[in-house]
Design brief:
The protein is α+β, with helices and mostly antiparallel strands and about 190 residues long. The chain folds into 2 domains: about 120 residues, no CATH class; about 60 residues, no CATH class. Helix content is about 15%, strand content about 40%. The strands form 3 sheets. Strands 1, 2, 3, 8, 9, 12, 13, 14 and 15 form a 9-stranded antiparallel beta sheet that branches. A 4-stranded antiparallel beta sheet has the order 4-5-6-7, with no helix packed on it. β14 and β15 form a beta hairpin. The chain is elongated, with a radius of gyration of 19 Å. Bound molecules: zinc ion. The site of zinc ion (ZN) has 8 residues, from loops.
Length: about 190
């Protein structure tokens, strides 16, 4: 499976394939031991570095900074970061606030000894496309873990069609037009 550095992940669907707007990068933090709502953090960017405060306590700061060029990580408290990563999973999310296109990565793996974040694969892609004539919508949900995609085809004034198809990745298509052509063919044979 193709793996991405944090920088490559940000660039993967940016600007958005569907609507051409710039995406928002979020870092999703999930507690490992208990079932709880994940926390979506919005990092800040400066000098090719991404920075977030991971601390769950309002009076504390636990910074994680990732250098987008070298993938090196820096923290104001490396021991606390180690504890935090022991108890939490982090993954990257690319969210288009304009059309809702969503891509998430697998959990990030950190090499704390050498101070860097490893490349990561895509876990989920979800986006909705509209045919050029506006007659039909395609809602595509791809699970890279299950190695398959689901398409919900929503033609105007007709019943929706749901199809399971082989894994479908944005990276296989040069542009939106090529992707829409593919869906026309899928519709013909469904
Ligand atoms: Zn979009």
């Amino acid at each position: 499976m193709k793996e991405f550095t944090v920088k490559d992940f940000i660039l993967y669907n940016n600007p958005c394939f569907v609507c051409n707007e710039f995406i928002q990068l979020q870092i999703r933090v999930t507690k490992k031991s208990i079932v709880s709502f994940p926390n979506n953090l919005k990092p800040s960017f400066s000098n090719n570095k991404l920075e977030i405060n991971l601390s769950t306590k309002y009076y504390n700061i636990l910074n994680l900074s990732i250098d987008l060029m070298s993938n090196k990580i820096i923290s104001n408290n490396i021991n606390e970061l180690q504890d935090f990563l022991f108890n939490h999973e982090l993954n990257l999310q690319s969210v288009c606030l304009s059309c809702g296109a969503y891509i998430s990565s697998h959990f990030l793996q950190f090499d704390l000894k050498n101070g860097f974040v490893k490349p990561v694969g895509i876990a989920i892609e979800n986006f909705v496309l509209e045919s050029n004539d506006g007659y039909c919508q395609y809602d595509i949900y791809s699970s890279f873990l299950e190695n398959k995609s689901k398409v919900q085809i929503r033609p105007m004034h007709q019943k929706n069609i749901e199809l399971d198809i082989p894994l479908f990745s944005l990276s296989k298509f040069k542009n939106k037009e090529k992707l829409l052509e593919k869906f026309k063919i899928i519709m013909l044979f469904s």
